[in-house]
Amino acid sequence: MDIPGGIVLAGGGKMGGALLSGWLDSGVPPGDVYVVEPEPDIAKRLAALGVNVGADTSGLPDKAAIVIFAVKPQMMDAVVPHYRSLAGADTVFLSIAAGCTIKQFESHLGAHPVVRSMPNTPAAIGLGMTVACANGHVSEAQKAQCQMLLEAVGEVAWVADEGQMDPVTAVSGSGPAYVFLLIESLAAAGVEAGLAPDLAMRLARATVRGAGELASRAQDAPSQLRVNVTSPGGTTAAALDVLMAEDGLGSLMRRAVAAATRRSKELAG
Ligand SMILES: NC(=O)c1ccc[n+]([C@@H]2O[C@H](COP(=O)([O-])OP(=O)(O)OC[C@H]3O[C@@H](n4cnc5c(N)ncnc54)[C@H](OP(=O)(O)O)[C@@H]3O)[C@@H](O)[C@H]2O)c1
Question: How is the chain split into domains, by residue range?
């Protein structure tokens, strides 16, 4: 992967660090990447990868092709103005911060290309799901560059309407936590049904992993995969009668996603 003009990464923490590892694994030359990371231990670890690392923006080149903001959302208003001077004719600013709006970036950067994106935690193992939304200044070539950088940690989808980022946050952004809860609940229920805790947790983890992988590889829709393992009058059918009841998982998930969507809107102001 080649990004002529260089990449600046503001924030080399968990998500920034995961992206950086993905880029280097995909062949981005380390010398083309400039990371701003004030935390000395993290900075040292990143410098060992061969990328340029500084505690502040003083050592950055005059211009960059892509500037990625990977600091905590509450830091964003203080951080973004320092990067405005990097904007050349072809610079795109890419944010991975939850809840920070395109308008917020435009208020600091002016009329420049901005992409707002929302990754999720499986990005740390290259299995993330990132959804991105571009403002009107982003060219197709810049979208392709952002897509390439985000794909280094998993799948990428685009939405045209920024309003979609709230339900996106509620489904894929917060979604891993729902799946972790599913594992916890399945294991706890197994213990209640008589299994040893270690075994119950192992079964729950492996089942969610295997079912997730099967659902992602199979040609059939998840609903068909469910039907395929449900014999009439069998054990799965007995459990699904409970889970698919009117007040079952469908209703709970609708309420959970609606609550997260509402909260995402509130946080974005
Ligand atoms: N982790 C996730 O799963 C996840 C998922 C989706 C989206 N995101 C988004 O990713 C962003 C980063 O989250 P994270 O979990 O990676 O946080 P993190 O691990 O705390 O990383 C943020 C890094 O930025 C550094 N930093 C602070 N001030 C800075 C500055 N002025 N310039 C450059 N770097 C600075 C921090 O250093 P200090 O520790 O010294 O402050 C820290 O190392 C957030 O906006 C979050 O919404 C994260």
Answer: 7-161, 173-268
For residue 73, report the distance from its CA to the centre of ligand 1, in Å.
8
12 C-alpha vs ligand 1 centroid, how far in Å? Answer: 7
Question: pLDDT tens digit string along 177-206?
Answer: 999 999 999 999 999 999 999 999 999 999
- Which residues in the chain belong to E strands, given as ranges? 7-10, 33-36, 52-54, 66-69, 92-95, 114-118, 128-134, 154-158
The minimum-distance atom of ligand 1 relative to the CA of 15 is 16
The CATH code that applies to domain 7-161 is 3.40.50.720
Q: How far is the CA of 75 from the centre of ligand 1 (A)?
A: 9
pTM: 0.91
Q: State the Cα–Cα distance between residues 192 and 93, nearest whole angstrom.
A: 51
> Pocket around ligand 1: residues whose beta carbon is below 6 Å from it?
10-16, 36-39, 42, 70-73, 75, 79, 96-98, 119-121, 173
Fold designation for 173-268: ProC C-terminal domain-like fold (1.10.3730)
- Residue 23 has phi, psi (to 5 degrees) of -65, -45
